[in-house]
Task: inverse folding
């Protein structure tokens, strides 16, 4: 595979061209080369074909001295000598009206634009000028644009004045044979008689930046127009640009174009041993790169979507933004899809657009469509993580793809909106740091997109996410709670988490004040060795780790705050000095429900200790701040605070273990299988207690070699236990294959998204085979929290906890619907348990339990629950 960009030589700054296109001050001048790539003849080949037509007509003349024969012979001689205009003049005498009819017969055969035409139409030039008779340039655009020949000079002036896009055909249109310019006489009339048309071209050459494509720049009449414009505007003329091949020019001609007309030559060299249409491929490669640069320029200058209007319409804004995204990237069609809600993660709301279908997809009934999670769009949506995931099909028919996703199961396929689609670019839509949808764009060109296009679509997807968040905020009245009124108590709760207190970690909690646009620090005054808290804050536009986390909505760990991290200057000396920060530092956004409430910053002099527990710090902070208690600020230090009671319950359950501070004795304790089983049971029981209130929990371990999950422990509360079923271990021994859609979903996401999340029957078209075996509500949702070991270079899935709030009601099982906040609280509780449980399951594999021979059970050595 050749790198075609390396065949393009640019020895000047291309940014003025990008700027001109972005500001609607650029014109594309399309010569015969573009149409040649579509199978049409160039000027010489057209005249040769016409000569053959004339020769056939001459057979009826026996007299070689006839005027027709003389004209034919002279036309043939002039054609060999390169005088095309005069040769055409003589052929006109020989053929008369048949010349125009012959040309029409030739040009009507080709009906599809070339890849060069399509590549040109992706770039937002202010005007397109072409010397070609054919309709291919017009056809390549997704909208109908005005087309003017040299006869409509007044319309051309009007288009220039209003700066509206138009296609100008300087040599006429095949649909109007009388407008065709081919002979010496016709060129003379065009240049001398139709002065107003030439004046229009001169104005464009003077005021705009031209990009010449498919033109050799040896047309005498074009050069004369440029001479006139250069003499009039002198140093203000240009710069202009021309794509030329090395076999068309030499160094002296390149210098002549630069010195005489301020034309910069983009020189294309033909690589050896290249197969395919090299001329087309190289030009398209350059135009693709230019399109990406322009899209980035435009999206940077783009105004933020107005989501504060009282007449806010989610559907209209999303559709308009999708259409704008397609135009920015030069794509032809696309999809953006959002979840129905964050608790039911099915891609429910679908917006489609096809710029060539005149809003055919923009119909209200299409919003009810659903994208299954066993498609590539559903899979990409499900991947969380620290960076936005993308997938690029450079040629979907050959399954050629580039992605930052480690593994993409082959079973997940993309269904394009059109059979003409060749390239597809997909990325996630994030809202407040978590995925809420996906956006994909399509092109009928092979390898149509670049890294710059990806940056553009990622910027646009951020706007999609902001609009989605605004929709949520408008649909739900979210009561804000003062989470940080007692930073000392909050830090105390953090320290009470299993094995955190001994690490001597210091904490800061930055409260977000959206009214003032600042982050206000809440902290334990003992950090400053003082009894009184001194106010400390950052403005949103200040440089600091906290503001960086707020903007990026991702956690960040820095091993040494003194050293530069990837050359990023995100650490504020002001904060380091004020809080006496040393060693390693970790920061993460902490969310209440789905919305960021504050920024947590933790640091420790022992970097090894801190890096081991960053996951637990984040999970603990999320669990504490998502307590369902109404009076959070009043109860955070009190015994009534639910999250605190849950933590105390866990600590009491594992008190014997927590006394073994020495890590070796803790590992030795867990080597004993009965100890390990007892500890697991003690750890899981609080999930169904009064401080979490899950109805049922099940612990599954994963045998990767056998590709099967086995339930090794289950517990149901009394009210959730079915008649003739046991509370303890009713589901022990139940297995589920790894290729089950719901298990496969967890396997595919755990590396990037190792957190508990809801699953629902609506996620997949296939039936959930465990619905009957596990006595689940067939229409309800359940929680799945992966248990992930990170002791090796690559994360390892040890198993998962599944839990639900399904209760028997007569002969049926129904889900108890909780508030969104309580749903989130239960998920964070499972995350917290899993972070401890992964250490237990990492000590020694539970081999016997996988076969079902040793379920979790009470034992003399069991830690008391």
Result:
């Amino acid at each position: 595979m050749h790198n075609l960009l390396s065949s393009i030589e640019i020895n000047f700054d291309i940014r003025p061209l990008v700027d001109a296109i972005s500001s609607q001050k650029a014109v594309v001048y399309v010569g015969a080369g573009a149409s040649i790539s579509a199978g049409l003849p160039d000027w010489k080949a057209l005249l040769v074909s016409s000569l053959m037509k004339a020769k056939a007509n001459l057979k009826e003349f026996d007299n070689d001295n006839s005027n027709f024969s003389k004209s034919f012979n002279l036309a043939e001689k002039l054609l060999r000598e390169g005088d095309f205009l005069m040769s055409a003049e003589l052929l006109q005498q020989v053929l008369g009206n048949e010349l125009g009819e012959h040309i029409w017969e030739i040009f009507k055969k080709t009906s599809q634009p070339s890849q060069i035409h399509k590549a040109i139409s992706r770039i937002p030039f202010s005007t397109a000028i072409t010397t070609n008779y054919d309709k291919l340039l017009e056809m390549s655009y997704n909208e109908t644009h005005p087309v003017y020949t040299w006869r409509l000079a007044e319309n051309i002036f009007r288009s220039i004045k209003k700066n509206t896009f138009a296609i100008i055909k300087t040599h006429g249109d095949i649909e109007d044979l009388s407008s065709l310019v081919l002979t010496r006489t016709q060129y003379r009339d065009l240049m001398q008689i139709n002065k107003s048309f030439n004046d229009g071209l001169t104005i464009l050459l003077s005021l705009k930046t031209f990009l010449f494509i498919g033109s050799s720049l040896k047309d005498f009449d074009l050069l004369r127009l440029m001479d006139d414009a250069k003499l009039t505007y002198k140093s203000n003329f240009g710069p202009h640009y021309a794509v030329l091949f090395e076999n068309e020019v030499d160094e002296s001609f390149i210098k002549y174009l630069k010195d005489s007309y301020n034309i910069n030559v983009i020189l294309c060299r033909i690589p050896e041993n290249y197969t395919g249409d090299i001329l087309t491929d190289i030009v398209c490669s350059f135009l693709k790169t230019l399109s990406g640069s322009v899209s980035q320029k435009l999206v940077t200058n783009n105004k933020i979507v107005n989501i504060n209007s009282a007449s806010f319409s989610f559907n209209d804004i999303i559709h308009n933004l999708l259409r704008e995204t397609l135009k920015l990237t030069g794509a032809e069609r696309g999809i953006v899809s959002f979840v129905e809600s964050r608790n039911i993660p099915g891609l429910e709301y679908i917006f489609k657009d096809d710029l060539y279908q005149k809003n055919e997809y923009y119909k209200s009934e299409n919003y009810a469509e659903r994208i299954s999670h066993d498609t590539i769009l559903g899979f990409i949506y499900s991947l969380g993580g620290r960076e936005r995931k993308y997938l690029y099909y450079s040629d979907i028919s050959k399954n050629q793809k580039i992605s930052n996703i480690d593994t993409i199961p082959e079973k997940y396929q993309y269904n394009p909106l059109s059979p003409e689609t060749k390239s597809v670019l997909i990325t996630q839509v994030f809202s407040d740091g978590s995925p809420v949808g996906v956006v994909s764009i399509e092109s009928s060109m092979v390898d149509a997109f670049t890294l710059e296009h990806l940056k553009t679509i990622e910027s646009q997807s951020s706007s999609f996410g902001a609009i989605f968040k605004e929709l949520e905020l408008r649909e739900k009245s979210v009561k804000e709670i003062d989470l940080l009124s007692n930073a000392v108590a909050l830090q105390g709760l953090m320290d009470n988490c299993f094995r955190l207190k001994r690490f001597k970690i210091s904490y800061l909690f930055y409260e977000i004040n959206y009214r003032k646009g600042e982050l206000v620090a809440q902290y334990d005054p003992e950090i400053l060795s003082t009894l009184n808290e001194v106010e400390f804050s950052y403005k949103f536009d200040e440089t600091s780790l906290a503001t960086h986390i707020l903007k990026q909505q991702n956690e960040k760990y820095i091993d040494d705050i003194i050293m530069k991290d990837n050359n990023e200057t995100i650490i504020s000396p002001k904060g380091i000095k004020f809080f006496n920060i040393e060693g390693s530092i970790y920061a993460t956004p902490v969310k209440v429900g789905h919305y960021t409430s504050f920024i947590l910053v933790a640091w420790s002099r022992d970097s090894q200790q801190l890096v081991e527990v960053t996951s637990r710090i984040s999970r603990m902070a999320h669990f504490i701040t998502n307590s369902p208690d109404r009076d959070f600020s009043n109860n955070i230090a009190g015994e009534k605070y639910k999250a605190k009671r849950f933590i105390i319950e866990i600590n009491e359950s594992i008190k014997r273990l927590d006394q073994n501070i020495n890590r070796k004795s803790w590992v030795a304790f867990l080597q004993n299988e009965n100890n390990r089983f007892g500890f697991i049971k003690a750890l899981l029981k609080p999930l169904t207690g009064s401080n979490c209130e899950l109805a049922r929990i099940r612990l599954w371990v994963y045998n990767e070699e056998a590709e099967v999950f086995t339930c090794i422990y289950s517990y149901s509360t009394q009210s959730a236990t079915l008649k003739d079923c046991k509370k303890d271990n009713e589901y022990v021994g139940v297995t589920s294959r790894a290729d089950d859609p719901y298990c496969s979903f967890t396997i595919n996401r755990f590396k990037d998204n190792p957190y508990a999340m809801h699953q629902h029957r609506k996620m997949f078209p296939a039936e959930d085979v465990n619905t009957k075996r596990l006595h689940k509500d067939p229409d309800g949702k359940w929680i799945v929290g992966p248990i992930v070991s990170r002791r090796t270079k690559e994360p390892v899935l040890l198993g998962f906890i599944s839990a639900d709030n399904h209760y028997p009601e007569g002969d049926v099982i129904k889900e108890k619907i909780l508030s969104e906040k309580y749903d989130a609280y239960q998920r964070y509780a499972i995350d917290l348990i899993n972070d401890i449980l992964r250490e237990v399951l990492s000590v020694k594999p539970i081999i016997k339990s996988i076969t079902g021979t040793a379920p979790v059970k009470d034992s003399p050595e069991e830690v008391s629950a």
Notes: The longest strand covers residues 434-443.
